[in-house]
Amino acid sequence: MAQNNNEEQQKFRSLEEMSYEEARDELIEVVKILELGQMSLDESLNYWERGEELAAYCEDYLDGAATRIETALAKRNRAQAEDAGQDRANGAE
Question: How many CA atoms lie within 13 A of 47 on its CB side?
């Protein structure tokens, strides 16, 4: 069983080599394969574990993207607030 598990894991591509889209697409395929239910328990567990890895990778990627967006919006809002403050200061002169 341990050898089969290692062989199954070796069939999967390393997450570090994958883009978000590739990981998402593989996750979709893993779910489809699992839904068929035509594998042994060991194979199903290997695919389930892979699905969990892919889901975590995708979630982390999306969390990072959300953080980047929030940072960019906060930077823009600070710049707009500074510009508005300068406009008020210049208008008061």
Answer: 19
Cβ neighbours, 10 Å, residue 64: 11
Domain ranges for the chain, please list them.
2-92
pTM: 0.73
Distances (CA, A) of 1 to 20, 42, 47, 63, 71: 31, 8, 15, 36, 47
How far are the Cα atoms of 32, 61, 87 from residue 29, in angstroms, in the given order? 5, 19, 55
Averaged pLDDT score across all residues of the chain: 89
Phi (first) and psi of residue 18, to 5 degrees: -105, 145
